[in-house]
Amino acid sequence: MRATVIHAPHDIRVQEVPDPAIQRPTDVVLRVLRACICGSDLWAYRGESARQPGQRIGHEFLGIVEEAGAEVHGFAVGDLVVAPFVWSDGTCAYCAEGLTTSCPQGGFWGSVGSDGGQGEAVRVPFADGTLVKLPAAAASDDHLLTALLALSDVLGTGHHAAVGAGVKPGSTVAVVGDGAVGLCGVMAAKRLGAERIIALGRHTVRTDIARTFGATDVVAERGDAAVAAVRDLLGGEGAHAVIEAVGTEESMRTAVGITRDGGSIGYVGVPHGSGTGLDLGVMFDRNIALRGGVAPVRTYIPELLPDVLSGTIDPSPVFDLAIGLDEVPAGYKAMDERTALKVLITP
């Protein structure tokens, strides 16, 4: 089969790899119908996150079960399913608590020795604990299938940030980051009842999507100017709920700066760089809470799925470039150069 592998920074290739096969009775083999490139994949692409030459890559996908192990009880050949970006056994104490990303037997797609999602097929460990079944009819609905793909990561991650920020009906929310996760954070905040949502971003195409998703205001400034602009919009105070969806020192400083005393920051931007710029003294003095981290997307899918199926929410606009598998290297380049927001892959 063909799959995407990374050999070195800026060296992404689509090449032949061994076909996936059942290795344990709890596995399934999945034929990929849709996958995509994540902003976090770019850290490996840029050389800021270490990878071994020839390592698989990609962690967002959905598809059809082609083969199921003898101990798989929840799925059968032909089922349409979506995979969260971390597999989990579904039986441990962490899974029972909903923190599937801390499952001791779990793992990330594309880690050493595992399949990546950007390919024709994937071996899924612990299928019963990992996968979520989708309506079979969705396989023939291109638009719905694209929206459902967002459940594998960005929609659930945006929701995790909104939950961490304490968004509730009537909230005022500020969102730092205009990438796909930040935009889904806007959507999640609106879904949870936020009354005012301020999106921070400089790219008009992206902030237009943010407005479609529920943003009431847009702030294009950065750094101290952004803090001043948000506070000006809010009568000199910050927002009670702030979503941080970037992960840089500057973005975290901005998030703290635009949070109202007694407010909360929900952070889901993958931290990168030498520091986060987090001043605990400032947060202590102002009673600011910080909650978030790696999103346990598997826990959120059952809650979010009905709204996607009904069209109550539609995250599909975050995918603004669709390509075939052979074009994946060009897709990485487009996202790296910010000419694409999020790239959809149809193997």
How many DSSP E strands?
A: 18
Q: Treating each run of at least 4 consecutive H or I residues as one helix, how many helices?
A: 12
Q: Provide the helix percentage.
A: 25-40%
Radius of gyration: 20 Å
The topology string of helices and strands comes to: EEEHEEEEHEEHEHHEHEHEHEHEHEHEHE
Distance between the termini: 11 Å
% residues in beta strands: 25-35%
Low-confidence segments, ≥5 residues, pLDDT <50?
none
Structural class: alpha/beta
> How would a textbook summarize the main sheet?
7 strands, mixed
Shape: globular
Mean pLDDT: 96
Describe the structure.
By secondary structure, this protein is α/β, with parallel strands linked by helices. It contains 12 helices and 18 strands. It has helices at 41-45, 93-97, 127-130, 142-149, 154-164, 180-191, 204-213, 223-233, 249-257, 280-285, 297-310, 328-336; strands at 2-8, 11-16, 28-36, 55-56, 61-68, 80-83, 86-87, 107-108, 121-124, 132-134, 172-176, 196-200, 217-219, 239-244, 259-267, 289-292, 321-324, 343-346. Strands 3, 5, 6, 9, 10, 17 and 18 form a 7-stranded mixed β-sheet that branches. Strands 13-12-11-14-15-16 form a 6-stranded parallel β-sheet, sandwiched between helices. A 3-stranded antiparallel β-sheet has the order 2-1-4, with helices on one face.
